[in-house]
Fold each of these.
Amino acid sequence: MKKRPNQQVSPKIAAGLIIVTLIIIQVVWWKGLIVREKPGPMRGGGGGGGGGPAAVLLLGNEAIRVETFAGATEPGDSDGAGYKARFDSPTGLALDSQGNLYVADSRNHKIKRITPQGKTTTLAGSGIGYADGSAQTAKFNLPSGVAVTPDGTVFVADSGNNRIRKIKDGQVTTLAGSTAGLMDGVGEKAQFRTPCGISYSPTTKLLYVSDTMNRQVRTLDLTGKVSGGWQTTTHPTGVLAGSQIVTAVPDSGLIVQGGTTLSNIPIDTQGKETKQSDFLISHPVALCSATDGWFVTDSVHHAVFFVKSGKAEVVAGQCKAGGVVDGWHDGKGNHCTFGSLSGVVWDGKSRVYVSDTSNNMIRFLEFKSQ
Amino acid sequence: MNSVRRNPSGKVNALVLVAVVGVIGATLLLTPRFCKDPTTLPIGQAQGEPQSIHCIGGVWYWIEQPKQGKARLVRGVVGNIRELATAEAITSMDADSTNIVWTERSQQGWSVQVANLDGSGSNDLWSGKEEPLGAKIAQGRAYWLQKTPAPLKTDLPFPALQPTLQVVSAPLSGGTPELGVTVPEAETGRVLGLHDNTLYLLAHRKTRPGSTTLYRIDTQTKAVERVAGTSQNLSALLTKEGILYWMTPSKETISPQPAVHVYRLNKEGKPESLSDWLPIGGQIYETNRGIVYVDRDYPTNMWAVGAEDAFPELIPTPKDYNPVAVGEGLVLLGTNASQRAKPALRQIPLP
């Protein structure tokens, strides 16, 4: 009769296996900790953004999670919570001191407000056109930019109407602008041509407007007096009023800060070989501040970048050596995908909100903070 | 050493085996041909995948855009396919009971053409450098969309800086084209039809996952209203009675979407949910037995679009034939789904 092989394992071998297994588990766990806790290659700082308390963000895109905050991929026009809301090509964003997010819902010709809990309501607008009056009956035409002052007044770059509009206490008025043109003055004597971006500076108490088709950044006070500004090389879209005025000029690939111009900012590919020309911030459309840099959206890379010291780091989106992937997918920063991005705003704590314009939704990047 | 016993009849057995396998194989290959339904009537061999298919008075019209060579506009009846026009590209087509219109690109540029249904008397309704989009005949006029230039050459996500689509129309008898309203869409679209002074349009945005928007325009007040929007680039239909049907991704599937759901705008102007779970990628057609969906599965199938929450009803087709399109009371069939690019076409009455 054939002898059965001895199936018992000697105690020495068993002990060895257990030790090896424990070592493997320890290594995997330790490595996981490194990945989870590893700070990114750059850090953003507090201040700026929505004016919340200072925070230090871990920017390594392993530490970032991207989620859909409001809206769905289908274009529509509905108020509601989270994904039940519908937008059509949302663009400019602004945050108030209570954490409410204001959205220029461009193709709906409306301004929407989203609470910190994610509930969307229509703040103003009733379809395409130009009409002042109550928030429910006022009309906008492809609004692109929004700004909010500390007292909660909302200002709108009403691009299709070539005007700056004001929303306060449920009433919409025209702060400045009339027909398309280029003219300083007060109220309707002033002229803009397709203004796309607007930002408020609490320091100067002025509004700064990207007067896109006039190739200018214009300044106006809260009484509607437009006085001065400066020329940009081509067509500015994003404007950020911080300690200095920063402008995104997408068709020249420029970010202009005061007298400093950053052009074709290289994107850090972390040593991977790539064609250099493919990896530049070539079309920056909007930006928001962090203490020592900016979060920037670029219209061709379907990604959110952190720009500091003349270099860009991908913080979210499939933009890496080898190609750019668009789409709609939530997840870790380096796994998520975006459509065409425009507005961007930081809450000063742990979230950066972006307008995913072609996906008709508002999304946020949640950072781990220290 | 082991001895090997040779079987003297081994060769014979092998030959018999090969013969049996051969006969079975040949039978399997040939059986479908013998089984083909003799009630199908041959039309002819297409030179490219038929697109934009219409059935008018029992005659089929479609566009073929082969990978190489010129595009052609053809009409097909039982036993005959005849070329009506050729061009470098033919991008859209529509026909009514007397005329056919199409949009084409030639060496001279783009144009909108009109002709009699037999192809005679062709005439330029419009010509220019920009592509006319999605032509449609309605109430004696040809309608199409024309992209207006963007304020900036750079493609940016702000709709205020993007092109728009403008409705253009011209009498079928010729005359100066008339510029109509614009809709805030930047990419592509088509006119779905005109009913009771309301013009319906469809627009596609292509950035993945893409989206589709449907508009209606009051031709008197020029008011533009978006009536529906959906993710993905899906199709829509305006029936002769003016009812708008469109598709959305299925309510019960997640991305990537393998199925679609059909809606229609009811008489009160509210979306009404109809069949769900139709295989994605197909077209909806108006027939004399209602709305029929022809999918693009392999092999293709056609489905009667019915009430909400009812599974779609499969309309049977003869074995080994694949529905390509339906119209009026006829079904256009292709004989081999694997040869979608150049199908041999036949037709049957719609069951």
Amino acid sequence: MRPYCLLCHHCYQPRVSWSDLLTLKKGDCLCATCRRSFSLIDSDICSDCGRPLDHLDHSYRDGDVCNDCLRWQNDNEWKGVLAKNRSVYVYDDVMKEVISRWKFRGDYAIIEAFRHDVCRVFSHHFSSESVLVPIPLSRERLYERGFNQAKALAELLSLPILDILERDHLEKQSKKSRHERLQMENVFRLRMSLPLEKPLVIIDDIYTTGATVRHAAKRLRQAGATDVSSFTLARA
Amino acid sequence: MKDNLIYMAVAAIGGIALGYSQPSLFSFLLLSVYSFFLFVRKRQLFFLCAITTVGFYLYMIYTDSHNRTILSEKMNDFSIRLIAPITIDGDRLKTIVKTKQHENVQLIYVIKTEQEKKQLSMLTLGMVCSVKGTLERPQRSRNPYAFDYQQYLRFQHIHWLLKPHSFSPHHCRNTPRTWYETLLSIRQKGLDDIKQYFPASTVGIVQALVYGERSQMDDSLLEGYQQLGLVHLLAISGSHVTLLVGACFYFLIRFTTRETATILLLILLPVYTVMTGASPSVIRASFMAMIVLFAAYKKIAISPLDVLCLTCMAMLILQPYALFQAGFQLSFIVSFALIVSLPCILQFSASLARLIVTTLIAQVSALPFLLYHFFEFSLFSFPLNIAFVPLYSFIILPLSLLSLGVHYVYAPASSPFVWALERVITISNDCVTFFSSHAPLSIVLGRPSPFLLVCYGIAIVLAFIRLENKRYDGFLYVLIAIFCHAVSPYIDRYGEVVIVDVGQGDCIYIELPHRKGVYLIDTGGMLSFSKEQWQMRQHEWEVGKDVVIPFLKGNGVRHIDKLLITHGDYDHMGAAKSIMNDVPVKQLVIGKGGTRNSLQAELVDVAKEKHIAVKEVERGDSWYVNDFRFYILNPSTQSQETDDNNNSIVLYTKLGGLSWLFTGDLEEKGEEQLMEAFPQLRVNVLKVGHHGSDTSTKEPLLQAIQPDIALISVGKQNRYHHPHPDVIKRLQAHGITIWRTDQNGAIRFLYTKKRGTFTVMLP
């Protein structure tokens, strides 16, 4: 039986490689066409937020830091809250479609398509000592969606997960402007105390302005954490 | 069964290999590693693979035990059927014939006159002839690393050479041909057409590319292609078959449905296989094409890797001995490596990058097999392949097919194509000749041991896995494996002395432990008798090229420290020139006053041209390396001896706890002088003087030096009737063990500092 592609549902011919034959690597669950449509972030990135820099005009960056991050750094309230952010894929039209299918339309199985890249990119940028802190959903949203996409991503990584954040139910982030997001009250609360010595990595699906992860990071820092960074599936 | 056939194919290969080789710890280890791998990786296939291995193992044992002759040496009268192409090369006719008893034998006939040669060219396939002649056993390999003719024929279920006393078409009659013979005679006709209508410089290449026939290619040119690792271009393989099948399919669907076109091609492919000489690479490519076409016809999806593995197993069932052929191994390993590396090659988008990566993968995967069979590889192989693969695939091959096709349709129209073809082939041949003769940059590594082969395998697979992540550092492992291979002789604590079987003549190879020194005493040499034009063969057998150099290269000899020429007889130094051409020599050693002999004088000139140091030695000279001392006992300038033989260099040394005396062609008079000068001389091993002639090895010498072992380097059935029975009697009377190259093939003494053991090629 030939496998079907998780995305396009067409039958496809997987290509065997040396590592398929000889190592324990699993075959890809996407056909070659769908796999190629994903754009990995693998070139120059902003050293702060992990945004790909190669298509960014020079007027929007300063050295290897993008203007967005400069704005965060110049703000005394937010300076140094988040050590860094790293993301796996570029949040382009394809990724937008794939993520919305996964998250909003509940095609949970698609997460398998991310597994290999997520693990690889994470281990490239973060220490294996890290403790993962997924961004939570409010109870209402969790009920509506059936699963927490950030926690699902964290579970791919086989590292300790610390589900200590809670959030109030508010309007969706994606319906707000940057300014609104920044002006927002911090919606996160801590459920318990932290293991202070370990580096913490906040996990989320998309990094757009960075407001969400910074709000979460701020709460963690207020609780005494010293090293807080974030890792997301896609970077807008 | 998705992509799982590979595990079964490997199991099948293991079964065949186990069935043919002697059981050893090494094969047991490999088998357990593979079982463990399967157990971890593909547990559901474990039993299937085990059954496959056992099945193929039993099948191989069954095939091998039934590969026996029913003919006997006493037979003289034969009724034979000509079933294979008849090649007449100079004064020799060779073909495979089927006897009345339905056993194939290899017929070899030396043609006596030019008139007879003309008559014999009228022989055709399907004729039945009655001949009188004798059956001879084919030669086994008489030297380490030499070609084993007996085994080669046995793999084709042939056990005898038939040598007719006379052979003429008058004793033959035509019979109806089988379809197979018909195809072969069409092929022969096609080859003749190419020879007749194409310019001489293109004939060999066009014949090779269209019919897979290389016999018309110039010997040194073919050697050049071989040396530079380009010879695969001259074999019909996957790209040919793909091109032809693609072109035919495209052509056929203009006239008929896809289904009919597929069926037509399925019928034509076996015909094509026979027409192109049915070499392993053609069979593989056609078989794979047939599976793909059949799968497309039946609308079954099958992956390329599974196609390859099915083909491999099918070929092993049809002809289990194929596994041991270089052609089979290279064809499958390169196809396998390319198919599995396909995802990796496709990561690269530029076509030049893809070409480079493809060439790299093909070259690296073939490396251990090339080293095993040919002992060396050329550094130019990689860059030249990058240039030649597209040249052959996109220009020379299509042009050859096109000009031949056009020639058959309307001959005059083909001339521009033929002209273009001639230009391109001339340029490419010139290029090959230039690189192979001026700077082949060959790296001689010798035949890798099984342990090294495993190292190569692991290193190469690791390199390919790394390459999949676009990391090139894995190739460092391959370089490390090559390095280990290159230094392995220097680590080896064994030295060896080999009396190389060069027929009538002398050639003794001495290697010190840890390769502290490599010495060659004499080179052998065969006087060729002047031949008339019609008698000249494409490839004239030559001791240096065909025996000594393969032996040296197989041993991984990159240079000779001293080449000692005991004296100027052709059977001792005839091959020296070709050896100096192929293997760097640091010093040429001849006896003092040796240049009086014209052959030696000529050799010294050649050596000087090549900037090889020449040293004349006499009694009293010696040299040493660590604890190994070598003493020259002869010639002596005081003796005023003028006879060449008695002026032979005589060498005394101690190796592996034994004392050795190498006497060249020393005769009675020389022996007397030797005993006079060294009355206390005692030796354990005596290289018997002058091939066991009665004029040497006289009683007084034996009494004086009291050897335990006598080594005689002598040709089988030589014209001088050496060794003389009296010499053998004298040796036997002293209770001396005798080893003879005519009976034992090469004699090898493997030693460490204190002790050593003798082995012979033909026990």
